[in-house]
Every structure is written in C-alpha cells, then in structure tokens.
Hints:
The structure is a homodimer of 357-residue chains. Chain A is α/β, with parallel strands linked by helices. Chain A is 50% helix and 17% strand. Chain A contains 13 helices and twelve strands. In chain A, the strands form two sheets. An eight-stranded mixed sheet of chain A has the order 3-2-1-4-5-6-7-8, sandwiched between helices. The first copy, chain A, has a four-stranded antiparallel sheet with strand order 10-11-9-12.
Amino acid sequence: MRVAVVGLGLIGGSLALACRERELAAVAGYDRDREVRAAASVRGACNTVHDTLAAALDGADAVFLAAPVGALGQLAEEALALVGPECVVTDVGSTKRAICERISDPRFIGGHPLAGAETAGIEHARADLFDGAAWYLTPQAEATTGVLYERLHRLLAALGARPGALDAVEHDRIMAAISHMPHVVANVIAAQVADALAGEGRTPLAAIGPSLRDATRVAGSNSAIWGDIYVANSAAIVAALGRLESALAQARELIAGENREAIIDWNDAARDRRAELLDTAIGGATQELRVSVPNRPGVVAEIALALGSAGVNIVDMVLSPSLDGSQGTVALWVVGDDAAVRAEGLIAQLALPVARP
Amino acid sequence: MRVAVVGLGLIGGSLALACRERELAAVAGYDRDREVRAAASVRGACNTVHDTLAAALDGADAVFLAAPVGALGQLAEEALALVGPECVVTDVGSTKRAICERISDPRFIGGHPLAGAETAGIEHARADLFDGAAWYLTPQAEATTGVLYERLHRLLAALGARPGALDAVEHDRIMAAISHMPHVVANVIAAQVADALAGEGRTPLAAIGPSLRDATRVAGSNSAIWGDIYVANSAAIVAALGRLESALAQARELIAGENREAIIDWNDAARDRRAELLDTAIGGATQELRVSVPNRPGVVAEIALALGSAGVNIVDMVLSPSLDGSQGTVALWVVGDDAAVRAEGLIAQLALPVARP
C-alpha cells in the first residue's frame, strides 16, 4: 500500500511515522513549506518527501490531508483532481460539516482523530500518537463506497486508533458541546472576571480560586487553530451557546428564588451528570480524592510515586494552591472503587489528609 | 488573651490549634454536636471544651463563629447577647452581605478566610491551615470601633493569615465573580453536555476533552455548603450571571458572523485577560508549559521530581489523558520566565516533548 501525507506537522508527521514503524505502507510526504519538507527529510518520517503535491499523490492508495481547517476544502479539491479513481482521500480537521458539504466526491471521507496537538511541529511527531485514540470518520451515506471506507477503517485500526463512523453534522454538534462551547465560555469568563477585579490588584482580594482557574484554563487557546474552528463550526457553536444561555437564565432564576432545597436538588443533579460524563469517557466509574498538601516542591511527586508504584493510575488531577503557594489541595481522579480505596490508604500513609468527597 | 471558637470543624479546629501552637491565647471551644465536642477533646485542639455556648464564651476577648453560613446569623445574635462589651465577635462564612446587614452590633466584624476546606472535620484540622491565607474582614464604617478591629487584625496576622478590609457588598460581588458564578456555570455545562451525549455511550464518540473536564470540575460541589452560599449571595450571583449571559450572547453573535479576524482578536484578548488574572493571583507572571506524555503510572512523578529537586515550584497543573488513558498532555504553570526556561530544559532531559504555547 502507498500512503500520501499532505501537511507534515505534528499530526501528519506522526501519521507517517506510525505507517512506517508498523510497516503498513510506503509513505510519500508533501508540505507546502520548504523548511518543513527539509525537516521531515531530516527526521526520516516519510519514505520520500516531494516538492509538489502531484508528485506526492502519484500512485497513492490513501491520502491524509493534515493541514489547518481553513485550508482543507481547497486542498481536498486539488488532491481529488490528482488521485486515481480507487484512492481514498481523508482529512484530520476538527470540524466536519463544512468540508463534507463542500466535497461530494465519493472518494472523500472526512476524518478527525482525537489526539493531542499541544506540541506542534514535526519535531514532536511520534509513531504512537494515535494509540487508542478515538478517530471519527464521517462517510456520506449516499456516496461513500464500501471498499474505500473499509480500507481507511482498517488502516486507522492498524495505526492503533479506534475509528468510528458518525454523521458530519452530528460530529460537529457533539464537538461544539464537548469542546468548542467550553472554550467560548472560558474566554468570556476570563474577560468578565478580569473586569470584576479591575482595581483590586493591591489588596489580598485578588486571590483566584480553583474553580476560576479551571473555568478559564483554556481561555485564548491557539488563535490560528481556534479562529478556523469557530468559523467552520459556527452554526453548531451558536446553537450550543443559545442552549447554554437559556440554561444559565434558568439557573439564575432558581438562585434568585432563594429556595435552598430546590437549589440543592439542582446542585446534586449536576454532580450526577458530571460523574456520568466522566464514566462515559473513561469506561469505568471515576472516583475523586481530595488531598490537603503543603505546596512545596516534591509533594505532587510523592503522591504520584506512591500511587504509581502501587499500579494506581491517575486519570485526572488538579492542584489548587493557596494565594501565596504555601499549601493547597490536590484533587485526583482514579478509575474504580478498588483503586480509590487503595489510593486513599497510600496517601494516608504519607501523613497527608485525604478525603473522598 | 482568651479566644472562644464556636463550631469545631476543620476551620474552627484549625483556628484553635493555631492559637494554641503559636501561644496566642487560651482557647475555649464549643460545638452543638456532642460527638464533635468529644472528638475535639480527644484531639486536644482547645484548652477547654464546654457543653454550653455560654460557658465557652465566658470571659472571651475574641469569638470566632465557625458554623455553616445558614446558621451564622442566629448564632451571632446569641453570642453577642452573652459576651461582654469589650469582646470582638467574628465569623468565617464565605458570604458577608447578609450577616452584616442582619447584625448591626459594633462588636461584630464579618470575616472570611480563603483557606482550604476540602477535607472537612476536626480530624483534618491543622495549625498551619491559615499560613499565608487571605482573610477578608468586613468592618462597618459607622459602627466598628478601632480597638476591636485592631485586636482582630493583629490576632489573624499572628495566626499567619493576611487580613484585609473590604466592604461586605463588594466582598460578595467579588466572590460571586471569582467563585460562585463559575460553580453555577460548571453545573449548567455538566447537565447540557450530558444531554448532548445522551445515547452516544456505545461509540468512541463519548470522549470528553480536557476543556470539558476543566469546565465541569467543580460541578455539584458539596451541596450543604453550596446551598447556603447560593442563597446567602443570591443577589450578587444573579447579577454576575446576568452579565455572563450578555457576554455569551455577544460572543455568540461574533461567532455567527464568521469574521475570522475579529474572532481571533477576541480570542487573543481572552488569553491576555487570563494571564492578567493569574498574575494578579500569584504575584508574578505565570508561564505555561505543555508536555506530551505517555499516561503510565509514574510519569507525573518523574516530571514533578525533576522540577521539585531543581527548586521549580508547580503552581498549577492539569493532566489530560486520551480516551483510553494510554497517553496525554500535562499542562504546567510555573512563576516567572526563569523558572519556565529551567523547567523546559529539565523536562526535555526526560525525553518528553515540551512546548511553551
């Protein structure tokens, strides 16, 4: 099999490495940036790196388009004009409706790997980037042929990913809910709270709590990537924000009513819904532990070592220091009640106060 | 000096321990729960534990009321009826407007320590709980006498805390912005996303990303505490939610307009506002590092140990695993550019990809 990878950044470079390391295909690479092509050659990610798109696509059985979301539509059209009738073309963009509406060619199947992209560039590419990663495919019911879909699905599974089919509009709706809308909220909260604290800088009042830290952590994520995402998925994001505004208005009215029992019912329900989300995501019931710690260098290491050497994996963690960093709380999530009980015991042995809220 | 502590949970117990360990005062304790009184006696947190409020308050120079927010108003009235004319009475509730409007007695000064309360109960009390913690005081300009305010301020500073005065209404407005409103948002988002994913549980689509994990982390926090807070600070929370709804509507219109440049400007501004918040809170410019890691037991320990043994303190951290937990990203925040440069080098030495976004 011959695979072409167009765009040799973190995702494209990792795809090429994974294909080669697992001996799945000969990989032909192309990037429109000459320096990136040179870096890819040095890295040895591809069997061959080409100076033109046409040369890279020549004879390909499968083509991965790993460019920014805003460039994918035109790139897909160019690629489809160059490849043969039995070649499957896919992309790795994080929104799918726009490109799937634009490209009706039966050889195109939209794709979206949920794989880390925090450290960009081919220098961070890794053959194991897609190990166990969900990889959404958005075939078009009327158009996509079975043979091309099966080839792509099998290739992704062989790469270590977990491919699953989904309607493009549904994909964008879900991504708006689980990722794009929370990014907008973080942006809005960061601005609003900065406004609320304006002028408080010289008092001890400026402490920001762990809830605010969490709520704003993704504020202002990479603008080049997110500018494209907000534009390409605007319809689904706008719909999700509309629902959020309605739900916030309901919560506001509930709180304005000052009915403590009703407020507690609503708060308890939110806890259950969050647990539901984590369970769905991780495939087991996550358990939370809260540890009070002196916030000195090394204390996180002690906890992580104690759990790690006992084989208890930490699936999520947040460290919330006090104003001056002298102490704080570590919240840890582990999977399963057994793991939680063991973790609690191990942490207690470190003489740190631990509780399961 | 003689200090009375009413309510012997985590905060009250830690107050008593801190007073005794620092030899600031003889501490008389009271809790309305007989079992808590017994546990406090065993723990030795107070010099004396009493069976009635009146006995505990007898001869006190300062009284701390460390009961749940919903009980503080009546408790303050009872305490003020029992103590002498030169005794200062304060509380530790996380909302201040309601109690300060109810209690006009010049001997009462509202208070609110920003100290960890995740692990409740006297068994988790610690003498160093307030070390470096901001402690808001809400004196009443027309009523509070200088001598009582000065005594309370000096006592808190001697406990290791950093007291600062603030108008009660302003206190509640700020807490609504930095803590209460983000909790409401987490509750609302958890429910909305659980709805959006309903029925997707059997597909790989249910992956929840790090942004959603952060956005919902405080969903459904302790209902007994938060029921009181939402009721006691409803006016300020309702106002903050109203502003949030307006700002979200503006963001929604911006995104609906699909003007990429305008969206990027807004996103860049959000990044700046979040950095402003962290800088204000931590007293230096925080720097973020992102590390791609295999999510095996021990990897967090390796990073934390490498930084810890080099004296680089991690002020915030979030671990975002992939769907199956096989790999992920650790985001770390350290204070200052020097620390960030050193951390980057130390992590690179561990052969982990690291970037400063």
